[in-house]
Write a structure and sequence with these properties.
The complex is a heterodimer. Chain A is built from one helix and five strands; from the N terminus they run ββαβββ. By secondary structure, chain A is mainly beta. Chain A has one domain: Beta-grasp domain (Ubiquitin-like (UB roll), Roll). Chain B has three domains: 205 residues, Aldehyde ferredoxin oxidoreductase, N-terminal domain (Aldehyde Ferredoxin Oxidoreductase,  A, domain 1, 4-Layer Sandwich), CATH 3.60.9; 179 residues, Aldehyde Ferredoxin Oxidoreductase Protein, subunit A, domain 2 (Orthogonal Bundle), CATH 1.10.569.10; 148 residues, Aldehyde Ferredoxin Oxidoreductase Protein, subunit A, domain 3, CATH 1.10.599. The chains are: A mainly beta, B alpha+beta.
């Protein structure tokens, strides 16, 4: 089962680290969970319990700047920054919505 | 009426000239690039007598406009051979503006190389004094002595070079003091410190005692404009108080760019650094809180700044170790060298400030040397020793202090991440293609600040079958022009975060300029002015021998896939050539 459906890693930063067990700001604060078919980034973040108003635009799925509507797949790496920790000119990356 | 202060280092004379009619509306990058292009032979040796340094405060520097104390330094660069403008935020800028000096032009060369001078500038006067008793010393020792002699940081501001500039090394920057008098604000890039060294000019001390306020032709326009800009800056998430820049400093980008897979690691071998969280802005904030016992928000580097992104790093005993540890410096001396020890990075940064070195070029040279086998990646102790070698100008130190390209040649390294001779800063172009376009087409070598960056996917390039949409090429060009305009106003480029999202903020900048100059510019004048600046710079470069063949990224990036995206640089050359035409 786990070989077919490895968990995704959600790397949390800043005030969002409180949703992980490891909260040291110099460490990797990672939540691991298994995703269901057609689950989106937004769905995963809701499941973790992250309030939408604490989210910034800096959300990366496998290193790609992504919209919350983008589907996730087993084994993905998701990086999520809070609203007070975004520092990108908005045109640096095209925002991905597709799989 | 503003003036030009023309300084001749051959006979050590200084005289005030009227600002020519054609330059009445120019300042900052607009004026430095115009004067360099007009007066410097493009084929001259950058360290010879024909090169000239031009220093200019921005159009609204010295006024109450928010975040407006940037100062431009221009010349032909000894690192790149191109025209160069490098700007810094420092009290030096408003002081010069209040003295009515729109530009200082420094020309000639002493007949007795090896002696160094101080230029003292006050209200309607400029005099020389010997500086030799301050040479060969770390700037952290020299600045307090200068403030003791000439007046405190409220009264005077200091421009200087360190030992790297005295030895005319191409990685030498130009150092200015911050509001507290720290020697910490740099026009770092392009080796302009070496040009000062070649002219025997060690310090410029500016004292604005008795100077009037900067005249404003239309107070109504100016006040309306600055209020619009202030409103944009204080409401935008990135630039507002306790926003990202104020809380974490620019180093907040370490974790963000690492997540994006674009943090150049171990001389651009990978785009992720396993030690990123240990050196990021969050780690700096946490270390300072732990070591000083309080949450430390960042400070203003210069008068009028309301973004306040300049940080400090404190030692375990709570004492201040270094300022400012910017994203680029943190990365260049950290991830790019495989170093994940924040205190070691702080020491490397402190030493660069002490010796007068550009942290980006220095970290780039160290990483190339590590790639060539001089030291293992991650060996912080050896990296510290090597920076001391640069500061002392030993033969090895001279190689490293000549930048990444010279170091690559000395060590036979083919992975040299440079464009037009300048090491890339902290964004991997194979992962962030837009920044690669900026590096390639910029007039000053690989530089993240030379033009606002847009993802090629947004532009519609990057291998798509469709030809470039002319409207999107226009957009890329317009952003290049907007950057050049902002660099001429005296505003910090970081206002772009807010004013590109909040249109009234950008209108405010134009209205501020109208207030000071009495012009009636509209937003349509922004691309007109930006285009003039970039065309001036490109014409200089063409005459210096640069062609579209130089607007390219290094070969290894086309063939070596970069983890984790395993991407290569794949933007077609013809697409690059179409952006600026």
């Amino acid at each position: 089962m786990s070989a077919d459906n490895p968990p995704i890693e959600v790397h949390l930063y800043g005030k969002l680290r409180r949703f992980a067990e490891e909260r040291d700001p110099t460490s990797n604060s990672i939540v691991r969970l298994r995703v269901t078919a057609n689950e989106t980034i937004g769905g995963v973040l809701d499941r973790i319990g992250i309030p939408r108003e604490e989210l910034g635009a800096n959300v990366f799925l496998n290193g790609q700047y992504s919209d919350l509507s983008r589907p996730v797949a087993p084994g993905d790496r998701l990086g999520v920054f809070p609203d007070d920790m975004q520092l990108l000119y908005k045109w640096y990356f095209a925002k991905r919505t597709d799989r | 009426m503003d003036k030009i202060l023309r300084v001749n280092m051959t006979d050590r004379t200084a005289r005030f000239e009227e600002l020519p009619d054609e330059d009445q509306h120019k300042a900052g990058r607009w004026l430095t690039s115009s004067l360099v292009a007009r007066e410097v032979p493009p084929s001259c040796h950058p360290l010879g007598p024909k090169n000239k340094l031009v220093i200019s405060p921005g159009l609204v520097s010295g006024t109450a406009a928010p975040t407006s104390s940037r100062l431009s330094v221009g010349a032909k660069s000894p690192l790149t051979g191109t025209i160069k403008e490098s700007n810094a935020g420092t009290p030096f800028s408003p002081k010069l503006a209040r003295l009515g000096i729109r530009a200082i032009v420094i020309e000639g060369q002493p007949k007795d190389p090896g002696t160094f001078w101080t230029l003292r500038i006050g209200l309607d006067k400029a005099t020389f004094e010997p500086a030799d008793r301050h040479t060969g010393k770390p700037l952290s020792e020299v600045y307090p002595a200068l403030f003791e002699t000439y007046g405190d940081p409220g009264r005077v501001a200091i421009l200087s070079i360190g030992t790297a500039g005295e030895h005319r090394l191409a990685a030498a920057g130009v150092c200015f003091n911050d509001l507290e008098g720290r020697p910490s604000r740099y026009s770092g890039r392009g080796g302009l410190g070496a040009v000062f060294g070649s002219k025997g000019l060690k310090f410029i001390i500016v004292d604005d005692t008795g100077a009037p306020d900067v005249p404003i032709k239309s107070t109504a326009a100016f006040d309306a404009g600055r209020k619009k800009l202030a409103s944009a800056l204080t409401s935008h998430d990135i630039t507002k108080p306790k926003g990202a820049l104020n809380t974490y400093g620019t180093a907040v980008l370490v974790n963000i760019i690492n997540e994006a897979g674009g943090l150049p690691t171990r001389n651009f071998r990978t785009g992720r650094f396993e030690g990123a969280t240990r050196i990021a802005g969050e780690a700096i904030f946490a270390a300072n809180k732990d070591r000083t016992g309080s949450e430390l928000y960042n400070h203003a580097c210069s008068p009028t700044c309301i973004i306040r992104c300049s940080n400090t790093l404190h030692r375990p005993d709570g004492s201040e170790h270094t300022s400012c540890l910017e994203y680029e410096s943190d990365w260049a001396l950290g991830a790019n060298c495989g170093i994940d020890d924040l205190d070691a990075i702080g020491e490397l940064n402190r030493l660069c400030n002490d010796y007068g070195l550009d942290t980006i070029e220095t970290g780039g040279a160290l990483a190339v040397a590590m790639d060539g086998g001089l030291a293992p990646f991650g060996d912080a102790g050896r990296a510290i020793e090597l920076i001391h070698e640069i500061g002392r100008a030993t033969p090895l130190g001279r190689i490293l202090g000549s930048g990444a390209v010279a170091t690559g040649k000395a060590f036979g390294v083919t992975r040299v991440p440079a464009v037009k001779g300048q090491n890339m800063p902290a964004y991997e172009p194979r992962a962030i293609k837009g920044i690669g376009m900026t590096y390639a087409i910029g007039t000053m070598g690989a530089d993240h600040t030379s033009g606002y960056t847009i993802a090629p996917e947004i532009l519609g390039v990057s291998g798509k079958a469709d030809p470039l949409d002319p409207n999107k090429v226009d957009m890329a060009r317009a952003f290049q022009y907007a950057t050049a305009f902002i660099d001429s106003t005296g505003h910090c480029l970081f206002i772009a975060f807010a004013i590109l999202d909040i249109a009234s903020g950008f209108e405010g900048v134009v209205e501020e300029c109208n207030g000071v100059l009495g012009t009636d510019w509209t937003m349509d004048d922004v691309p007109r002015i930006g285009e003039e600046i970039i065309n001036t710079e490109r014409a200089f470069n063409r005459a210096a021998g640069f062609t579209s063949a130089h607007d390219r990224l290094p070969d290894f990036m086309r063939t070596e896939p970069l983890p984790p995206h395993n991407a290569v640089w794949d933007i077609p050359d013809e697409d690059l050539d179409r952006v600026l035409g």
